[in-house]
Amino acid sequence: MTTLAPPAVRVSESRATRAGGRSGALIWLTLPALLMFTAFGIVPLLGVLALSFTTWDKIGPIQPSGLTSWTAVLRDPDLPHALWVTFLIMGLSWLVQTPLSILIGVFLAAHKRYRGFLAVLYFVPLLFSSAAIAIMYKSLLDPNFGVGSGPGMGLLRQDWLGDSTLAVGVLVFIVSWQYIPFHSLIYQGAVRAIPTTMYEASLIDGAGRVRQFFSITLPQLRYTIVTSSTLMVVGSLTLFDLIYVLTAGGPGDATLTLALDMYKTGFQADLMGPASAIAVILVLVGLIMSQLLRRLGGRGDESQQEGM
Amino acid sequence: MIGKALSRRHLLGLGVGAGAATALAACGSAGPGSAGGSSAATYWSLSGPPGEPARKAAIDRFNAANPDTKIAPLFFQNDAFKQKIKTSIGAGEGPTLVWGWGGGTLRSYVKAGQVDDLTDWFTQNPAIKDKLFPTSFAAGTVDGKIYGMPHESVQPILLYWNKNVFEQVGAEPPQSWGDIMALVPKFNAAGIAPFALGGQSRWTNMMWLELLLDRAAGPEVFDQVFAGEPNAWSHPAVLEMLNRVKQLVDAKGFIQGFSSIAADTHADQALLHTGRAAMMVHGSWSYGIQATQGGDFVKNGGLGYMNFPPVEGGKGDPTNQVGNPGHYLSIASNATPEAKEVGKKFLATLVDDKEPGEWIKTGNVPIIKGSDAQFAGQPNGEFLKFVYDLSINAKVFAQSWDQALSPTAAETLLDNIAKLFQGQVSPQQWVDNMNAVIGK
């Protein structure tokens, strides 16, 4: 026993110094990133916060105005509506994207040549820019010149983007079409990380494919689901370009999300104070949502950089 | 993940822009023109035809005639310009010559003390003032003083119709509001939409309100709104106008799906020249679009155009026009005296003999009196003459509401118009919502 003690102590000592040295170096290494984040993340954020307590029309001087912008925004009936639309699109696109992404991810995880080919094909939508996707779908769904005007396509001739209910549905569909490739990629990677021994053991116990999916794959994907959901939720909150090109918040205000409301208030109505207040609300909602999801998933998403 | 990068950049832009503006406001030194030497003036405007080539030609003429002075132009895309010009002027970093649409934005410049009063200059140069359409000055005038010189072209809003489908249905162009309402079931029965409309753009719907209010009550009602009089929208003619619009929407007067059609893709124009819609209310610029995108439609005489008809019992003069009575050029207050001199000298170039030709060439009607003498022999000469006569004979040529009002009030207006067409607000709610932003 005594002969073993010194090396043990030495090991722990050296481990301590090595660890200390490494963490010291790590702080230096994070400095550039921290500086960038402060300069381009924190400072503008504080700027927006400061701006929300002022009045500014972009031409005249910036004037402190206390809580006027905040009371204007909080009293505006557009805010609860925009929040509702934002959460509606968030919830619906989560409901559509998550199961489909998991199924596609699981399907693609198997090492088969034709699935490799399909994986490339499925990935294509993510390569397009949102604006291009929006313009493409806008043309396709045009009530007079879109796909519905083709021969024998009468069923597709709906007022897709001009009807309040349909427009929300179409939006969720297009968002899902664009981002399911990304999320299924995450799931594909996660499924491949599940030890094959678990499946071999279950096979011996007589589990079929469906049973394997529900008893092994899905529980093992728990943290991945949290990560993917966080990305979806935060992404939906800031969803802007696609809606702006596709419906510009219309018809009426049926697809007016919080991000769009912020843009219209700030850059179309020239009300920089209230727009900044909406931006702060957006940041807060995003922080709360991602923290909630983090709690739900424990520490499973710590390797992801996203989170704001 | 979705759109995240964009929105973050967005926030950054907002914050950085704010920071920069404060910093500049704090030091408040370098004004426009200071960089390019004392005898140089800067000029910012929109890129692309018709403005850019016509303006480049004028600047070239000016610079050639004045070798010791110089105007340096910069051209921006429409939306980029709108953002850039406001922020730059707010920061005291704008150009010497400020191009704009007049109305509400010009009023904000004036309120912030950013542009010069040109009234005296026009009194000293009556020859220049006399060359321009008199009705064009209203939108460049704030509180009785001229801050923006009208220039470029006039663009009233007209009623267009497709002669082919009118023939097919056996209908005559409407001479009154009653005729319009009577044509609606006729065209609907023939499976043709009565009116094309790019409703997603919102200002397209607004043109209907402008015309109907003017025909019913004349320009006074909106003038009161513009002057910021409390509850000015409560005038009975406003409810009458809103109810007319509602009737037309309810009678399926507009093409199905109009609220998802955006005007910037010209899908509304296509509806007219393909014969899917029989009529359209649109700016005079639509003629050029129909001619270039409609194949032989205009060439074969398929496009009819007319002044918007009167409404029954209306007090408004039917010769009144709404739309773009001109574009406006102002002089920045904090430019150097030398740069201002150059800028004012340049204003005279905008009414010289060469100027009208530059606009006629692009299919536009110059804002200059007597330019109709040059219409003969133009491929669209007849149309140019029609627009010229309409504009010069108008007792009042009112500016489009969204440009006349401040951006804040204009955004509320456009939102409420979209909701009215969508049935999301009643005419009375519309009036209440709009009264709440009068003077803002």
From TrEMBL, chain A:
Keywords associated with the record: Cell membrane, Membrane, Transmembrane, Transmembrane helix, Transport
Membrane topology qualifier: Multi-pass membrane protein
An annotated GO cellular component: plasma membrane
Domain of life: Bacteria
Subcellular location: Cell membrane
Record-annotated membrane-spanning stretches: 25-51, 82-110, 117-140, 160-180, 221-247, 267-289
InterPro entries attached to this UniProt entry: ABC_transporter_permease, MetI-like, MetI-like_sf
Principal place of residence: membrane
PROSITE patterns: ABC_TM1
A biological process from GO: transmembrane transport
A Pfam family it matches: BPD_transp_1
Domain ABC transmembrane type-1: 83-293
Record-stated family: Belongs to the binding-protein-dependent transport system permease family.
Protein name per the record: Raffinose/stachyose/melibiose transport system permease protein
Organism encoding this protein: Catenuloplanes atrovinosus
Upper taxonomic lineage: Bacteria, Bacillati, Actinomycetota, Actinomycetes, Micromonosporales
UniProtKB/TrEMBL annotation, chain B:
Keyword Signal assigned: yes
Stored Pfam families: SBP_bac_1 (PF01547)
Keywords annotated in UniProt: Signal
Signal peptide: 1-25
Record's keyword annotation contains Signal: yes
Coiled coil regions, renumbered to chain: none
PROSITE patterns: PROKAR_LIPOPROTEIN (PS51257), TAT (PS51318)
Protein name as annotated: Raffinose/stachyose/melibiose transport system substrate-binding protein
Organism the protein comes from: Catenuloplanes atrovinosus
Species classification: Bacteria, Bacillati, Actinomycetota, Actinomycetes, Micromonosporales
